[in-house]
Design goal:
transmembrane helix; transmembrane transporter activity; Growth Hormone, Chain: A; cell membrane; disordered C terminus; 19 helices; transmembrane; mainly alpha; MFS_trans_sf; disordered N terminus; 404 residues
Length: 404
């Protein structure tokens, strides 16, 4: 035990904020890789000769794999040093993205997205608990926020950045750029992280036991409905904007950058609100998304109307991650790591399910059908929040970090 305590202290001394920043860069890279196809579905479909719904599999597959990988990767890693687990996952992510840039067929691209999903789930699971091992106790909260800000920023900025790069030089260049970024992050992790011997893993029985907690079940249902609804529509945001505004690739990139900026603001606003009450924050977010998502299906008002709706969408969705994290961990304050594993699995499964259902709606009915389906699912999340009674743990959300 003394050896472990000494190792933990040395990790903090050798890690610190540079190591935390490197981990945040890792979470940014994996989520950017996951979201990248959203802004590139049209050119991917055109380049590989497949419809938009089929191209949407590049979103569905990694989300499904990540949902399984989140609890599986730490268990499979056993007693491997978590520093090298993260470095290896980032190296694998770089290879998958660089090979994706040269994919000759949709089947090859989807197969490579399986590797991306493995990296997403593994990095999320390992990174979630690292702040406490890298900085002094008084700094754990801000360090955890910085690590998870990589996810928030990637969710709202990765797509427009990828769209801009794809618009300038083609979708393959966007994948190659993220591959190079992943290599750089792998090097930074190798240089800046201290040795990180594994701690006690979350047992499967502990995770399963949380499903008997009513607040956890309700929180997971909110995550599934809200995130599935969002991605049912957002996966196809580029063709939606092309239809609604008649804008070209350059203007659409600008609209998505506005979405990203609004999303970053929404993330910090929701973080403050969720510290007081995650449920109330999610009530506002769900109500806004239930209106905005289907409203995008109406091709009226041109670029100005589309821009207003996109900014409102980004502002609302930017707070989803931090608020849903807070809701789940407030429902299980004594089992934050197990709740985190459930959150990661549910969130990534919802991303995949949203892309899948949206794609089926587009192929079987129409592009607006995906938006109306998304709005209906988000309304379902709002209904769950209205009917669910707030738990006592929610009142303790202010005193504890969202993920530990």
């Amino acid at each position: 035990m003394n050896t472990y305590v000494k190792a933990k202290g040395n990790a903090k001394a050798r890690g610190g904020w540079p190591a935390v920043a490197a981990v945040a860069a890792g979470t940014f890279s994996v989520v950017t890789s996951e979201m990248l196809p959203v802004g590139l579905l049209t050119p991917i479909g055109s380049g590989l000769g497949v419809p938009a719904g089929t191209a949407g599999l590049t979103m569905t597959v990694p989300g499904l794999v990540a949902a399984v990988a989140a609890p599986a990767v730490p268990a499979a890693a056993g007693r491997l040093d978590r520093r090298w687990v993260l470095v290896g996952l980032m190296g694998l992510l770089a290879v998958a993205n660089l090979l994706s840039a040269a994919a000759p067929h949709i089947a090859v691209l989807v197969a490579l997205r399986v590797l991306v999903g493995l990296c997403i789930g593994g990095v999320w699971a390992v990174a979630a608990g690292l702040a406490v091992r890298l900085v002094p106790e008084r700094s754990v909260g801000p360090a955890t926020s910085l690590i998870f800000s990589g996810i928030a920023v990637a969710s709202v900025l990765g797509v427009p950045a990828g769209t801009l790069a794809g618009g300038l030089d083609g979708w393959r260049v966007a994948f190659a750029a993220v591959g190079v970024l992943s290599l750089a992050v792998a090097a930074a992790l190798a240089l800046l992280l201290p040795p990180l011997p594994p701690e006690r893993a979350v047992r499967p029985a502990e995770v399963a036991g949380l499903l008997r907690v009513p607040g956890v079940r309700a929180g997971l249902l909110v995550v599934l409905l809200l995130v599935t609804g969002h991605f049912a529509g957002y996966t196809f945001v580029r063709p939606v904007l092309e239809r609604a505004s008649g804008a070209g690739a350059g203007l659409i990139s600008g609209l998505l950058l506005a979405y990203g900026a609004a999303g970053v603001a929404g993330n910090f606003l929701a973080g403050t609100a969720a510290a007081r009450s995650p449920r109330r924050a999610l009530l506002v977010i769900s109500a806004a998304l239930a209106v905005v998502v289907p409203a995008m299906s109406v091709p009226a008002g041109g670029v100005l109307a589309a821009g207003v709706l996109v900014v409102a969408w980004g502002l609302a969705y930017g707070g989803v991650s931090v608020a849903t994290q807070g809701l789940l961990t407030a429902s299980a304050p004594a089992a934050r790591e197990a709740a985190s594993a459930l959150f990661v699995s549910a969130f990534n499964a919802a991303i995949a399910l949203g892309a899948l259902l949206g794609g089926r709606a587009v192929d079987a009915v129409s592009l607006p059908a995906a938006l109306w389906l998304g709005g209906l699912l988000v309304a379902g999340a709002l209904g769950v929040l209205v009917s669910a009674r707030p738990r006592a743990g929610e009142r303790r959300a202010r005193e504890a970090p969202a993920i530990r």
